[in-house]
């Protein structure tokens, strides 16, 4: 079946609306993404500006006390694993793929909460600086985030072509990386106290 950009836009709009209702997010919080959807932009393509869809994984250990962060090579920051959406994957499958690629962990799985709720844990639009070496102007990443669970005995094997490193950090470190995701995790009881 061929990928349908219009159907993808409709799907992302439904995800936005459902997420906003579930977590009390004002509709104007995602004004740029909503505007791009209304304009018919190909938000699935990394070549679309002023922004496009990315996905990422909030990787938790089995106890919900630690999260796996990667050191992003281009942004030089610790972040959750993630990257550009690749059609025709589902949003959740895209997040899972990115987590496997960047961490080298092979036994990752999407948290069952997503199947029951049909929601991401967070949606965040953030500004990305221009990268002239890649002919990319400054733009927005509309990041759709999912909870991913890791097996504790899996060893990290980060892809050093993609990231500078990966390490398990205290869940509280998400406050500096993805504060709304951390708030939502706590609200739903995922975060161990």
Automatic annotation (TrEMBL):
InterPro entries membership: NUDIX_hydrolase-like_dom_sf (IPR015797), NUDIX_hydrolase_dom (IPR000086)
Protein origin, superkingdom: Bacteria
Domain called Nudix hydrolase: residue spans: 50-192
Gene3D superfamilies: Nucleoside Triphosphate Pyrophosphohydrolase (3.90.79.10)
Pfam families: NUDIX
PROSITE patterns with a match to the protein in the record: NUDIX (PS51462)
Protein name: NUDIX domain-containing protein
Species of provenance: Microvirga terricola
């Amino acid at each position: 079946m061929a990928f349908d950009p219009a159907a993808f836009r409709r799907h992302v709009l439904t995800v936005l609306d459902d997420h906003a209702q579930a977590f009390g997010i004002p509709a104007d919080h995602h004004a740029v993404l909503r505007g791009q959807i209304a304009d018919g932009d190909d938000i699935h393509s990394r070549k679309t500006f002023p922004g496009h869809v990315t996905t990422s994984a909030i990787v938790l250990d089995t106890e919900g006390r630690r999260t796996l962060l990667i050191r992003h090579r281009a942004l030089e920051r610790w972040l959750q694993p993630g990257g550009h959406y690749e059609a025709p994957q589902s949003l959740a499958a895209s997040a899972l793929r990115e987590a496997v690629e960047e961490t080298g962990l092979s036994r990752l799985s999407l948290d069952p909460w997503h199947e029951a709720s049909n929601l991401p844990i967070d949606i965040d639009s953030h500004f990305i600086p221009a990268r002239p070496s890649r002919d990319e102007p400054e733009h927005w990443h509309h990041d759709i985030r999912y909870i991913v669970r890791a097996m504790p005995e899996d060893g990290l094997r980060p892809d050093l072509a993609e990231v500078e490193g990966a390490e398990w950090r205290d869940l509280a470190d998400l406050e500096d990386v993805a504060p709304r995701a951390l708030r939502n995790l706590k609200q739903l009881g995922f975060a161990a106290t």
